[in-house]
Design goal:
This protein is 29% helix and 22% strand. The protein is of the alpha+beta class. Strand 4 and strand 5 form a beta hairpin. It is globular, with a radius of gyration of 23 Å.
C-alpha cells in the first residue's frame, strides 16, 4: 500500500487558471509577474522577497552582488577597512540624484543608516547591529564605525540595509514613506493599487540610464503559479519569477518562451512560535515534538512530487553548495519509529497544530503533504491558507503556532541565521532566544578566515538542530521564465530581478 502522503500527492491539483485583463498599451512596458503582492516599499521595513524585486529597480544600494554572488560597487565606488576591521570607509559616486532632485551624498548615507538603527518600524536593526556611528568625512566619503568587527556588514549593505532613500522625502513622510517612496534607482514610483499592480517609470536622470531599456515597469502579484504561467504564454506578462518546476519542460518546448534558472542561497522551512502567544501549545514548548515533526517528514518525496526533483532537500540554513554547509549534519531520512519515540519522550500521543501557509499552489501542496505525513505520528495539522502580507504581520505579532515561509538567502552566512533567530531580531518570528547561539554568531561575525568561521557556524547549526525553532525542508532554485524576445536577463543567486541590459528584441 502506498503511504498516505503519496496517495495524496497523486490527487493534488493546481488551481486558478484565469488570465488577467490586458493593461492599457504603453511604449516600452515590461510586465512582470510576482508570486505575491509585496508588503511595504520602504527598505527600512520591507520583509517580503517579492518586495525586493520592486525595490531593486526603485532604490540603488551602497553595493550590489553579481551573477556569481560577489560584492560589486553601486553607490559606493570603493571601500576600505581599517587595520582591525572596526571601521569601513566608503567612497561614493558623485553623479547620483534622488527622484525628487536632491543630491545623494555622504550625508544621505549617514541619514539612512541612522534611520535603520533608530526607526521603530525598522527591520534592518539586526542586519547592521554592529554599527556604532556613522561619520561624514566629506560629501563623497562616509565612515561607518563598528562596535566590533563585522564581516557580514558589506553583504548586508548589498540588500535592503544598503538601499538609500531620499532624506527629504523620508523626513516629510515618516512611516507613510511606503506610500510614495523616493530613492535613486533607475526607475521611480508612479502608483500602487493594492493586490493589483505597482507601476514604476524610467528615471531619466539616473547615472546609468542608457542601460535600462523600458519606459515603464508594471509588477503584478499572482500567488498561483499556473496563473502566472498562463499570463506569460498569452502575452499578458513578459517575465515571471518562480516558475513552477512542473512547468519547466513546457517552457523549454515553447519557442516563444525561455527559462532562466539559478541556484538559490536560502531555504524554506516551518517556523514554530517558541515564546510568543502560540508557544502555549505543546509544539511551541517542547523541542521533542518539533523533532518528531521533522523525523516524520519525507523531504525527498516533497522535492519529487512538488518540484520535479529540481530543488535540494535540506536541514540547515545553508544549501549544500555553500562552503558553510556541514556534511556532519545530513538530511534526516523519514523515520516514523524514531518520530513516535520522540512523541512519547514529550509525553504526548496527539498534538494539534495550526500551520499558516501562503496561498501559492506550491506551498499549499507542500503543506498538504506534510499534513498527511505527520498525521501518521499523531500530529494533526490544520492548514490555514493566508495571504503572504497578512501572514507576515501575524507572525510579527507572535499570534501564530507555525508557518511555512522561506528565506531567500544572502551571500554571507550570518545573514541566513541572525535576522531570523538571534535574540530580539526583527525577523525572529519564532520569538526564540538562545544566548549561547548569540555568542557564537557574534564571534563568527568578527572572523575573517572562512575555515575558522565555518567552525563557529557548525556550532550554530548543532544548536539549531537541537532546539528546532525552525524545521528546514529544502533549498530552492530561482526559476525565471520570459518571452523569448526579452534578452539580457542574467539571474543572480539571490533570486532578485535585475534589469541592467535587459531589452526587447524588435
Amino acid at each position: 500500500m502506498k503511504p498516505l502522503y503519496l496517495a495524496l500527492a497523486a490527487g493534488l491539483a493546481l488551481s486558478g487558471m484565469t488570465a488577467i485583463a490586458a493593461p492599457a498599451a504603453a511604449q516600452s512596458v515590461l510586465k512582470i509577474g510576482l508570486q505575491d503582492d509585496p508588503d511595504t516599499l520602504d527598505p527600512v521595513s520591507n520583509w517580503s522577497f517579492v518586495g525586493r524585486h520592486v525595490l531593486q529597480s526603485l532604490c540603488d544600494k551602497i553595493v550590489d552582488i553579481d551573477t556569481e554572488g560577489k560584492i560589486i560597487p553601486m553607490l559606493a565606488t570603493s571601500w576600505e577597512w581599517n587595520a582591525d576591521s572596526t571601521a569601513l570607509t566608503l567612497k561614493l559616486r558623485n553623479d547620483v540624484v534622488f527622484h525628487d532632485g536632491t543630491k545623494m551624498d555622504a550625508a544621505a548615507i549617514k541619514y539612512n543608516l541612522d534611520r535603520e538603527l533608530t526607526m521603530k518600524i525598522s527591520r534592518r536593526k539586526a542586519e547592521i547591529s554592529a554599527v556604532s556611528s556613522v561619520d561624514v568625512v566629506d560629501p563623497l566619503t562616509v565612515k561607518i564605525n563598528l562596535k566590533e568587527p563585522s564581516v557580514p556588514l558589506l553583504a548586508a549593505l548589498s540588500d535592503r540595509a544598503g538601499m538609500i532613500v531620499s532624506p527629504k522625502a523620508a523626513e516629510a513622510l515618516g512611516e507613510k514613506f511606503t506610500d510614495a517612496p523616493v530613492c535613486s534607482g533607475p526607475y521611480k514610483f508612479v502608483e500602487r493599487v493594492t493586490q493589483d499592480r505597482i507601476v514604476l517609470a524610467k528615471f531619466d536622470k539616473y547615472y546609468n540610464a542608457d542601460q535600462y531599456h523600458f519606459d515603464q515597469l508594471v509588477y503584478r502579484g499572482m500567488p498561483d503559479s499556473n496563473v502566472r504561467f498562463l499570463n506569460l504564454r498569452s502575452g499578458q506578462l513578459d517575465l515571471i519569477e518562480r516558475l513552477a518546476a512542473t512547468d519547466v519542460e513546457a517552457v523549454k518546448a515553447d519557442k516563444a518562451l525561455a527559462v532562466a534558472p539559478v541556484v538559490g542561497l536560502g531555504y524554506y522551512g516551518i517556523t514554530f512560535d517558541i515564546t510568543g502567544e502560540g508557544a502555549d501549545l505543546d509544539a511551541g514548548k517542547k523541542a521533542a515534538i518539533r523533532e518528531a515533526f521533522s523525523l516524520a517528514i519525507d523531504r525527498d518525496a516533497i522535492n519529487n512530487v512538488v518540484f520535479e526533483g529540481q530543488f535540494t532537500t535540506g536541514n540547515q540554513p545553508f544549501p549544500p553548495a555553500s562552503p558553510y554547509y556541514d556534511k556532519n549534519f545530513p538530511v534526516p531520512a523519514r523515520d516514523l519509529d524514531a518520530a513516535k519515540k520522540k512523541m512519547a519522550e514529550a509525553g504526548v500521543k496527539t498534538v494539534d497544530l495550526e500551520l499558516l501557509v501562503p496561498t501559492d499552489a506550491e506551498r499549499q501542496q507542500v503543506a498538504q503533504l506534510i499534513q498527511a505525513m505527520v498525521a501518521e505520528i499523531g500530529i494533526k495539522v490544520s492548514i490555514k491558507p493566508t495571504e503572504l502580507m497578512t501572514l507576515l504581520d501575524i507572525a510579527r505579532q507572535g499570534k501564530f503556532e507555525s508557518h511555512l515561509v522561506g528565506w531567500s538567502g544572502r551571500v554571507d552566512p550570518d545573514l541566513n541565521i541572525t535576522p531570523m533567530l538571534a535574540c530580539g531580531a526583527a525577523g525572529n518570528d519564532a520569538h526564540y532566544c538562545n544566548k549561547e547561539l548569540d555568542t557564537i554568531l557574534t564571534k563568527a561575525r568578527a572572523i575573517g578566515d572562512m575555515n575558522a568561521r565555518k567552525v563557529e557556524y557548525s556550532k550554530a547549526i548543532a544548536i539549531l538542530l537541537k532546539d528546532l525553532p525552525l524545521v528546514y525542508l529544502y533549498h530552492s532554485q530561482w526559476i525565471f521564465a520570459h518571452n523569448s524576445n526579452i534578452t539580457g536577463l542574467k539571474p543572480a543567486p539571490d533570486g532578485i530581478i535585475r534589469l541592467t541590459g535587459v531589452s526587447r528584441k524588435k
